[in-house]
Amino acid sequence: MATIYLATWESRFWAWLIDILLVGAFSDLIVESSGFFWDSGFTNLTGFGVSGVLIFVYWTLFEGYNGQSVGKMALSLKVADRKGGRIGFGVAALESFGKAFLLPLDCLIGWLAMPDSKLRLFNRISSTIVIKTKYEEPEGVRYVKENE
Q1: How many of the other CB atoms lie within 10 Å of CB of 107?
Q2: Is residue 102 part of a domain?
């Protein structure tokens, strides 16, 4: 039986914040360079604006490819299926939709309806979990740090 360590809400928050800041900076660059200096309907269409779409695409691509966004890589977290395996792009899109566009509701329903499960609503819908990755040396290899 494999042991899977579920990520804490705190570590998930910090990974989310890293991703939001990273994509937010990129989004600001795009919006400013395209001439959208004002809060137009294009950049703020009830949450589905440029930033929302960019963060959705970012999470779908990164987490669909290897389960990790930059924030998750930094905090040794990973999105996985319920057995700890890869999720793919379709599942990543479903899982990412909730946190990109409906995060407060997504979290609130998860916390109230599934207490102590460490699942958001869209984790439950997509059958995904966020796990702590464990770095291990490959079998038969030992790393030694050189004394400085």
Answers
A1: 19
A2: yes
Domain count, the chain: 1
Amino acid occupying residue 40: S
DSSP 6: B
Tokens of 87: 């999720």
In terms of residue numbers, what domain contains 108?
9-36+48-132
Q: Which residue has the tokens 């604006």?
A: 49
Q: What is the pTM of this model?
A: 0.80
Please name the amino acid found at residue 91. Answer: V
* Whether 119 contacts 133, CB under 8 Å: no
Per residue in 49-74, pLDDT (tens digit) is 777 888 999 999 999 999 999 999 99
Helix H or strand E segment including 22: helix 9-33
In a domain, 114, yes or no: yes
For 40, the token pair is 């137009």
Kindly report the number of other CB atoms within 10 A of residue 133's CB atom: 17
Sequence-ordered list of residues with C-beta below 8 angstroms from that of 123, at least 6 positions apart, any chain:
95, 98, 110, 129, 130
Measure the CA–CA gap between 109 and 113, rounded to whole angstroms. Answer: 6
For the chain, give the percent of residues with pLDDT over 70: 85
